[in-house]
Design brief:
This protein has 229 residues and is an all-alpha fold. It has eleven helices and no strands.
């Protein structure tokens, strides 16, 4: 019960910048509860970010764990010049891009997508789908999510990273500028170009989708025909 209370208190504190010092103090003191909460809070978001950067999605889990190792080792040197969240994402982005550069240099000939990568892709789509939707709606939304994820991987860096941070992770422009160590003008320019790339990649799919009847309409028409009979 005490552990749960401590974690709950941490959750209330972490979102307020002036009170972040209390959380950082517990992390620096080696609090197991603080680190457990940190992992539970950031593991999935960091994995999602890293997964969308690396050419080989199977590496995402390993790099995510490496990020937490870096956080644990580096928390003593965190002085609050940026928010804790921004600092953690900066580490994650640095590790992911380093791994991407290594992969580009040493594994260019091994560009494959194995069954494990497809499983991760499917689970991402399933997370986006609403479990209360009809099977047809859920399938349609999962298909769209899969198309967007595939197209996003084709958006060149550094535009893709800004799109992910802004449109998927929900960071503000100032936060993104801190994470990337770039000015606001650069962030906005990259975001605009990244969105334009993504839109152009999705345009053929959207045009095809608009030309074909919706599954719901097809089912409704079939049901109406059956009732008429």
């Amino acid at each position: 019960m005490q552990v749960g209370t401590a974690v709950g208190n941490l959750a209330g504190v972490i979102g307020v910048r002036p009170e972040e010092a209390a959380v950082v103090e517990q992390l620096k003191a080696g609090s197991e509860e603080a680190f457990a909460w940190l992992i539970s809070r950031y593991q999935q978001p960091l994995y999602s970010l890293i997964y969308r950067i690396l050419p080989n999605p199977s590496d995402a889990a390993d790099i995510t764990q490496e990020v937490f190792v870096k956080v644990f080792r580096g928390i003593a040197h965190f002085h609050g010049k940026a928010s804790l969240r921004t600092w953690i994402y900066r580490i994650a982005l640095h590790e992911a891009l380093n791994q991407r550069r290594w992969w580009t240099r040493h594994e260019r000939q091994q560009v494959t997508i194995d069954a494990g990568g497809e499983d991760h892709h499917a689970s991402s789509a399933e997370n986006i789908a609403d479990t209360h939707e009809s099977p047809f709606e859920a399938f349609a939304h999962a298909e769209i999510a899969a198309r967007v994820e595939a197209a996003l991987r084709e958006v060149p860096e550094p535009f893709r990273t800004v799109v992910v941070l802004r449109d998927i992770e929900g960071f503000g422009y100032e936060e993104i500028a801190e994470i990337l160590n770039a000015n606001l003008g650069t962030v906005k320019s990259r975001l605009m170009r990244g969105r334009a790339h993504l839109k152009s990649l999705l345009a053929p799919y959207m045009e095809a989708a608009n030309r074909r009847p919706s599954r719901r309409s097809s089912v409704s028409q079939a049901c109406s025909a059956e009732e008429a009979i």
